[in-house]
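Appendix C: a fully annotated inverse folding record. The material below is reproduced so that readers can follow the format used throughout the book. The structure is listed first as tokens, followed by the designed sequence.
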């Protein structure tokens, strides 16, 4: 999948020098849908634009193979998927006037398009995703297609609003991806790119199929390579988290676009190093904190639990059961799933908190009140 012979010390976006990043595990990493693969996560951080990227180039055909029938992120947790769609829908609707036509690349289950059309019912929408769930059907004014950008129906024409949420970071060439979107953009249309915020390290840096962690500077560079100007770049609302929105137009004169915030690329590299060091040390940290208990509970069974399975495998091997309030939201991570209220029948049991670090202290208080022994790790990895 990644050719070690193609290793480079220069940023593929701006051609500046780059520095290697710490391996969170010496021999394994994780895809964004939770699958663990036997490949180390070898990434680098640009010392100019601040973007992070794989140390070796990726073959397009190999990356595309990831998003086959085994890629189940869109259907893993339906309630969470719907909640994300509502949050992204509110954010996008707040930035744009009603469009006549919408294209979404990487539409997942189609939930976001459905959400947008509740407010813009007169628009026609087309969604394209290589891992479109087989149970998902087109609707009256939403056409859903299984495939990539080149599979957009030719009869669809051009679009006033093109949306790609958490897609560009998966592409082997972000500039080429934006060029392909530009080809489908109507005059005076807008391209909305939402992706993880590369200005501070967070869990997206740990996904093998995130080929880039993009800063605002990096996104602007990619846009210029596609004859697009960044009209607006804004961070996500707090309820969405560590994400950013860039709005591109087909404007070729960049003289009136607002300047990008300066990126302290050296500090960003250092911050990423510290963050990945935390993940590298996490397994031993958790073994000590859990007293090497051989019968752990895991409170949580989603993305964070999947990351623990990938990067703290010795600790995860001791997890006997996953507990949560709604078992229907559990990812398929191996151990059996049980209702949380049943778990509290065994007081004092060590329970690994498999939730995002920012909420671990609140979760720990709940577990303590219910008589469990919470195992937190947000002191080591705070976000």
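Designed amino acids, in order:
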């Amino acid at each position: 999948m990644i050719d070690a012979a193609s290793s480079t010390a220069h940023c593929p976006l701006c051609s500046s020098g780059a520095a290697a990043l710490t391996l969170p595990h010496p021999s394994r990493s994780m895809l964004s849908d939770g699958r663990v693969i036997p490949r180390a996560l070898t990434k680098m951080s640009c010392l100019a634009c601040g973007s992070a990227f794989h140390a070796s180039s990726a073959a397009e055909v190999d990356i595309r193979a990831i998003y086959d029938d085994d890629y189940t992120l869109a259907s893993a947790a339906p309630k969470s998927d719907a909640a994300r769609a509502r949050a992204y829908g509110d954010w996008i609707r707040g930035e744009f006037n009603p469009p006549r036509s919408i294209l979404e690349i990487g539409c997942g289950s189609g939930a976001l398009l459905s959400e947008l059309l509740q407010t813009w019912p007169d628009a026609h929408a087309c969604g394209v995703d290589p891992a479109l769930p087989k149970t998902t059907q087109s609707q009256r004014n939403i056409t859903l297609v299984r495939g990539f950008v080149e599979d957009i129906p030719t009869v669809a024409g051009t679009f006033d609003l093109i949306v790609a949420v958490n897609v560009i970071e998966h592409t082997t060439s972000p500039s080429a991806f934006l060029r392909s979107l530009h080809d489908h953009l109507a005059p005076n249309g807008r391209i909305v790119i939402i992706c993880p915020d590369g200005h501070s390290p967070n869990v997206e840096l740990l996904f093998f199929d995130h080929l880039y962690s993009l800063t605002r500077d990096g996104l602007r560079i990619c846009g210029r390579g596609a004859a697009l100007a960044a009209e607006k770049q804004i961070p996500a609302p707090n309820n969405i988290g560590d994400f950013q929105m860039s709005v591109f137009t087909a404007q070729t004169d960049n003289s009136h676009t607002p300047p990008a915030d300066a990126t302290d690329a050296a500090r960003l590299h250092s911050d990423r190093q510290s963050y990945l060091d935390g993940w590298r040390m996490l397994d031993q940290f958790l073994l000590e904190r859990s007293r090497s208990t051989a019968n752990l509970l895991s409170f949580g069974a989603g993305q964070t639990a999947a990351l623990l399975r990938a990067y703290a495998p010795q600790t995860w091997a001791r997890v006997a059961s996953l507990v949560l309030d709604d078992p229907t939201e559990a990812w398929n991570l191996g151990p059996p799933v049980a209702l949380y209220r049943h778990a509290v029948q065994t007081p004092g049991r060590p329970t690994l908190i498999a939730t995002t670090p920012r909420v671990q202290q609140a979760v720990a208080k709940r577990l303590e009140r219910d008589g469990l022994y919470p195992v937190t790790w947000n002191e080591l990895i705070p976000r």
